[in-house]
Amino acid sequence: MFTGIIEELGMIQSLKTDKENLDITVRANFTSELKIDQSVAHNGVCLTVVSIEEETYTVTAIKETLDKTNLNDLSEGSFVNLERGMKLGARLDGHIVQGHVDQTAICTAISEADGSWYFTFRYDPKLNNITIEKGSITVNGVSLTVVNSKKDEFSVAIIPFTYEHTNFKTFREGTVVNLEFDVIGKYVKRITELG
Predict the structure, then answer these.
(1) Higher per-residue confidence, 194 vs 44
(2) Residue 66 pLDDT exceeds 90
(3) Residue 127: which H helix or E strand, with range?
(4) In sequence order, which residues have a C-beta less than 8 Å from that of residue 185 and are 6 or more positions away?
(5) Radius of gyration (C-alpha) of the chain in whole angstroms
(6) Measured between alpha carbons, how far is 52 from 147 in angstroms, rounded to an integer?
(7) Which of 8, 94, 103, 193 is found 20 to 30 A from 160 (Cα to Cα)?
(8) CA neighbours within 13 Å on the CB side: how many for 10?
(9) Quick one: pLDDT at residue 185?
(10) DSSP 3-state assignment of 190?
(11) What percentage of the chain exceeds 90 in pLDDT?
(12) DSSP states of 99-147
């Protein structure tokens, strides 16, 4: 379980294919605090630490994960948003994030707004995910508030701190991002579909 509050930007040290899996080695400041079998969110994707070596650790993404996320777009030197699992009893500064990506989206517009930025994303509506105005959304693991919600598109407003401390600063039009829709909203949607 995560909060969507990014701890740091990690750098991809190496990528190795093993059959249909991808071993991702990441350089991060908190590596010395990690343990084998611990969960870390990478651009919002919950992955398990399988090895640790000095300042780097390795996680493995299986085909199912690679098919549904932007992890295939990583390259050596790429930056990923990192968050370790939530501590029980700590403040929930973002929202409840599972680290289970629902689908990807494409950045379609970026506009500067005199000290902040608006990013617009379009996603495939066939998967029946929804956003609501002022609802929660996770973009590459970052907990954000939806503005300008549409059937297959939404925007988020990014403050300077988030821009500088996440990989939002690397986004361009056409960048593919991971989306995790609000878990409470997903349950409400499912209940209404069944009712």
Answers:
(1) 44
(2) yes
(3) none
(4) 130, 132, 135, 136
(5) 16
(6) 40
(7) 103
(8) 32
(9) 83
(10) helix
(11) 84
(12) S---EEEEEEEEEE-SSSEEEEEEE-GGG-----TT-EEEETTEEEEEE
pLDDT at 86: 87
In which residue are the tokens 């995910």 written? 129
**Mean pLDDT for the stretch of residues 168-185:** 95
What is the average per-residue pLDDT within 124-128? 91
Rounded to an integer, what distance in angstroms lies between the CA atom of residue 180 and that of residue 103?
7
Specify the pLDDT at position 189: 81
Tokens 């549409």 locate to 150
* Residue from 9, 1, 2, 38 nearest 164 by CA: 9
Predicted structure pTM score: 0.91
Q: Is 20 exposed, middle or buried (0-12, 13-18, 19+ CB in 10 A)?
A: exposed
SS3 sequence, 21-58?
A: EEEEEEECCCHHHCCCCCEEEECCEEEEEEEEECCEEE
Q: Structure tokens of 184? A: 């409470």
Q: Among residues 45, 135, 48, which one has the least CA distance to residue 99? A: 45
CA atoms of 182 and 137, how far apart (whole Å): 6
CA–CA distance from 34 to each of 22, 31, 60, 91, 165 (Å)?
20, 5, 15, 21, 21
Length of the chain: 195
Share of the chain above pLDDT 70, in %: 100
Tokens of 29: 């400041």
pLDDT at 138 over 80: yes
**Cβ proximity of 94 and 51 under 8 Å:** no
CA distance 81 to 8: 6
